[in-house]
């Protein structure tokens, strides 16, 4: 079986961008692949975090992933810091990664701009840790949103270089994107990606927003002065984004959506998109609330799954340690 690996940061709430871009594919892929999913708290601390909040959000992230349909019988679902192999491999890979490569990462450029003078080293080397995550598990496919494309490319480069220098150790992974949803844009500025850290809360839909709020946010979504529900990312970015969200929530194709709203205004269309998203999320939210009260169950999963992950990760790390010349007695 091919191996699928992906991760999500436990920082802030998750948006429908995270869901349609990544987690929805995770839930589908676990049926056909050996799947491993990680809540990446080591990545989260590359930005300032309140410790109590980080710990709470790590529990919440596990609960939400379970509520979304990650099946702990089929997939491994664990917390990154509980598997120390990640930090060790990241260090080793740091030593075969160039400053120049990391300087070209667009996410680093964006995030470091906001940090002014005091840019953290961890933020700079974040993509190396991500490469370590992926490579430890001999991953074939990495289901992510489009904003992670460059990071997966780097992981491939690092893997190939290491293999060339030391002999074959790593499987060279490939990014995987769904048909639609890989780039869910802001509802207010459709040229920008939907982000949980947006100051304007109308720009994103949280997976935990209640139905009324969701419908309201879609009603306020920016469209254009045209009337037609047709897909054209350049000329009609707002409408195209809503169409893709609707496609993700309902499984309809873009053509079917255009037909459905022919002769109707944007008002009807936005209402339908809002309701479809709210209907998708309602059962997830109920299950999430139930799981939050099952702390012992969540901890049992975190514990047993970290052990399973560690067993796999250690096999790769042991080979790497030998290849680079560490003493193994
Ligand atoms: P993170 O936590 O920022 O986002 C989690 C996933 O959600 C996707 N995503 C989106 N997809 C479509 N439209 C959007 N607006 C949108 N916003 C977010 C992201 O592409 C991602 O797939 N570095 C990663 C986490 C990570 C990882 C890994 C992923 C760490 N190690 C190993 C894969 C493999 C991150 O910060 O994702």
Detailed description of the structure:
The chain is globular. α3 packs across α12 and α4 runs parallel beside α13 (295-324). 55% of the residues lie in helices and 7% in strands. The chain is mostly helical and 329 residues long. β4 (141-143), α8 and β5 form a beta-alpha-beta unit. The relative contact order is 0.15. Bound molecules: tryptophanyl-5'AMP. Tryptophanyl-5'AMP (TYM) binds next to β1, α1 and α7. A motif ('HIGH' region) lies at residues 10-18.
Keywords:
mainly alpha, Rossmann-like_a/b/a_fold, ligase, two-stranded parallel ribbon, 329 residues, 5 strands, globular, binds tryptophanyl-5'AMP, 13 helices, 55% helix, 3-stranded parallel sheet
Distance linking N and C termini: 33 Å
Strand content: 5-15%
SSE sequence, one letter per element: EHEHHEHHHHEHEHHHHH
Strand order of the largest sheet: 1-2-3
Number of strands: 5
Which molecules are bound in this entry? tryptophanyl-5'AMP
Q: Nearest-angstrom radius of gyration?
A: 21 Å
Quaternary state, please? single chain
Average residue-wise pLDDT: 96
Sheet with the most strands, sense and barrel status: 3 strands, parallel
The backbone outline, from C-alpha atoms, is globular
């Amino acid at each position: 079986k091919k191996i699928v690996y992906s991760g999500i940061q436990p920082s802030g709430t998750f948006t429908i961008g995270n869901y349609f871009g990544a987690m929805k594919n995770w839930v589908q892929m676990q049926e056909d692949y050996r799947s491993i999913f990680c809540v990446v708290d080591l990545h989260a601390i590359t930005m300032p975090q309140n410790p109590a909040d980080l710990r709470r959000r790590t529990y919440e992230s596990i609960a939400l992933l379970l509520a979304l349909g990650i099946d702990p019988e089929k997939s491994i679902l664990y917390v990154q810091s509980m598997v120390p192999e990640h930090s060790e491999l990241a260090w080793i890979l740091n030593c075969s990664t160039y400053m120049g490569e990391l300087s070209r990462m667009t996410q680093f450029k964006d995030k470091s701009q906001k940090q002014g003078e005091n840019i953290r080293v961890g933020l700079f080397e974040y993509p190396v840790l991500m490469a370590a995550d992926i490579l430890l598990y001999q991953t074939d496919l990495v289901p992510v949103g489009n904003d992670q494309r460059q990071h997966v490319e780097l992981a491939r480069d690092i893997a190939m270089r290491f293999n060339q220098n030391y002999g074959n150790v790593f499987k060279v992974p490939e990014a995987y994107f769904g048909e639609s949803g890989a780039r869910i844009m802001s509802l207010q500025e459709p040229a920008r990606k939907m982000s949980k850290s947006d100051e304007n809360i109308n720009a994103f839909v949280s997976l935990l927003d209640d139905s009324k709020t969701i419908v309201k946010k879609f009603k306020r979504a920016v469209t254009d002065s045209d009337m037609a529900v047709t897909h054209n990312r350049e000329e009609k970015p707002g409408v195209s984004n809503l169409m893709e969200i609707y496609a993700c929530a309902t499984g309809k194709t873009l053509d079917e959506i255009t037909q459905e709203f022919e002769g109707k205004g944007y008002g009807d269309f936005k209402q339908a998109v809002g309701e479809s998203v709210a209907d998708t999320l309602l059962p997830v939210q109920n299950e999430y609330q139930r799981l939050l009260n099952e702390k012992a169950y969540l901890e049992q999963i975190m514990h047993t799954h970290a052990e399973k992950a560690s067993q796999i990760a250690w096999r790769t790390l042991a080979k790497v340690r030998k290849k680079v010349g560490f003493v193994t007695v």
